[in-house]
Amino acid sequence: MCPACYINGLLFLIFGASGAFIANNAWIIAASVLFTIAGLVWMYMAYNKNRGSGGLKSNVRNTLVYLAIFAAGYITAAYNTHDYFKQKYSANSNWSENT
Questions:
Q1: Could you please report the per-residue DSSP string of 39-51?
Q2: Is-contact 6 46, C-beta < 8 A?
Q3: For residue 18, how many other CB atoms are within 10 A of its CB?
Q4: What is the C-alpha to C-alpha distance for residues 23 and 25, in angstroms, rounded to an integer?
Q5: Can you state the angle between helices 26-50 and 3-22, rounded to 10 degrees?
Q6: Which residues have CB under 8 Å from 46's CB, separation 6+?
């Protein structure tokens, strides 16, 4: 099982699709197309690497465990940094009035 391969492929697909959706520049569209192609290639490589070993149930479970670990870290970091920015900008709320 290669959950990192699936996660890399998924991230490439997400960045490629979101970049193509919000792009207004030809270079960004080109990068989005390359990210999308890279995502499809990563997904194909992950499928070929795991063909016949591990089973679908084990593969899905391992991938979900790694995604849950990533999500827990992301939520923890977002919660901690939200407090930081909330305090930083609430202390300077009168900044526009002083300039």
A1: HHHHHHHHHHHHT
A2: yes
A3: 12
A4: 6
A5: 160
A6: 2, 5, 6, 9
Q: Is the CB of residue 61 less than 8 Å from the CB of residue 1?
A: no
Under DSSP, the state recorded for 53 is S
Distance separating alpha carbons of residues 81 and 73, to the nearest angstrom = 12
Using alpha carbons, list the distances in angstroms from residue 8 to 47, 85, 94. Answer: 13, 30, 44
The whole-number mean pLDDT for each consecutive block of 10 residues of the chain, a chain of 99 residues, reads: 73 84 84 89 80 69 83 80 67 53
Element (H, E) at 21: helix 3-22
Interaxial angle between packed helices 56-91 and 3-22, expressed in degrees from 0 to 180 and rounded to the nearest 10: 50
Q: Which amino acid is at 76?
A: T
* Residue 61, H or E segment: helix 56-91
Confidence at residue 12, expressed as pLDDT on a 0 to 100 scale: 87
Domain layout of the chain by residue ranges: 3-90
